[in-house]
Structure formats: structure tokens, C-alpha cells
Write a sequence for this structure.
């Protein structure tokens, strides 16, 4: 088992900022809180078939891991290497998807 802080912080930040960028491209605004970004991201991608259902919930799942790393102590405060690795892999997938969606938004400009 490993501490959650080291392996999952980069995907949290990259995913959060990538979602903010997509929201800005589609809605012209940038929510600042995690809840605001997650809610707006879900709204904007609700009917988008390009967004895998697993990636639609990525921001929620990664926030949970961040909470464990930042605030929890005791036996439940550890994240398995498998869970951390999956978070990193999903983070890369999420950022690639946001890049694809943003590029599609800006093609006609």
C-alpha cells in the first residue's frame, strides 16, 4: 500500500484544469470549485457519446482519492498501488479526451 498523496495529485490537477478548459470553450465561464467544475462538466457532456461513462465520473472519483490523501488518517487513509495506478491511467485518458473535445470545439475558429 502507498500513500495516496504522491501518485494521484498530478492527475487530479491535470484533470481538473482540463475540465475547466472544456467548460470555458463550451460555456465561456470557468467554475473554480471542484463541485462547480464537476457539475458543469456532467451537464455539458450529458449527451456526448464520445465521453466514456467511466470518464464522466473521473472527477468525482479522483476527488475522493484527494480527500483521502489530504484529510484522512488511519487504516482507511491508504490507497492500494492498483487504485493509484488506475487513477493515473484514467487521468491520462481524461486529459486526452478533453484535448480531443476542445480541439473539436475550436476547429471552425
Amino acid at each position: 500500500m502507498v500513500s495516496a498523496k504522491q501518485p494521484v495529485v498530478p492527475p487530479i490537477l491535470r484533470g481538473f484544469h482540463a475540465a475547466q478548459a472544456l467548460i470555458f470553450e463550451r460555456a465561456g465561464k470557468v467554475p473554480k470549485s471542484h463541485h462547480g467544475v464537476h457539475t458543469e462538466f456532467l451537464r455539458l457532456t450529458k449527451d456526448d457519446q464520445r465521453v466514456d461513462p467511466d470518464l464522466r465520473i473521473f472527477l468525482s472519483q479522483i476527488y475522493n482519492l484527494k480527500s483521502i490523501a489530504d484529510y484522512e488518517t488511519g487504516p482507511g487513509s491508504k490507497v492500494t498501488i492498483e487504485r493509484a495506478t488506475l487513477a493515473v491511467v484514467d487521468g491520462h485518458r481524461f486529459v486526452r479526451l478533453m484535448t480531443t473535445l476542445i480541439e473539436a470545439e475550436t476547429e471552425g475558429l
Remarks:
- Residues 2-104 form a domain with the Four Helix Bundle (Hemerythrin (Met), subunit A) fold (CATH 1.20.120.330).
